[in-house]
Amino acid sequence: MDAGPAGTAGPPAGVAALPARYQIVAACALALAAVVVCVHLGMLFLHVAPPNTLTERHGDAVDEWIYPEFEQNWKLFAPDPLQQNIAVQVRAEVSTADGGVRTTGWYDLSAEDGRAIDGDPLPSHTRQNQLRRAWDFYVATHDSRDRPVGLRGALAETYLRRIAVLRLERNGAAGPGGVVERVQFRSRTTSVPPPAWSDEKVSARPVHRVLPWWGVPAEETGESREAEGGAR
Questions:
Q1: Rounded to whole angstroms, how far apart are CA atoms 47 and 41?
Q2: Is 36 exposed, middle or buried (0-12, 13-18, 19+ CB in 10 A)?
């Protein structure tokens, strides 16, 4: 835009060029955005800060704001960051339509999730975290002999089992007319290779942790859900 005559101010630009009512709307929108940004930064600070009076009194509100989209942790910047890849796998014992029983092969659920989000600019939060968090929950509530520690152990088993049944049904593991009767999990842990310039030596041999077989209640199988839907 050409400048006006010497000694005169040019026409207003930006927000100032808008009518008065639109200037008010723009100012309110900017103020609201600034408030939201300040609240978000404050919630993030309280989430990662050590326990204090505010988090003790308003911890539930902070968690509701943060989870699940804005979860923060320090694993990447920890003094000893994670150095292992953990793949969670499952197989099933299936009763077939002809009255027989067969055991499926191992389904690598972690690999399925990895393929689902690979190259996706907006990956599913469920694909990224559901299985991983469920496995961490199980490990935290069970001892090395897979015995539950505390009351949350049974909840962790139920949650992990239901994830397995849903994934197996999605993969058609039971086959036509088949029903998943039992499921079994195992984890496959491998060390992350050190960088080429490092002299550190790590074992490339995977370590497996095999869980016991868990029976699947009838109400969790696809067959029972279909029968319930037909009855309705």
A1: 10
A2: exposed
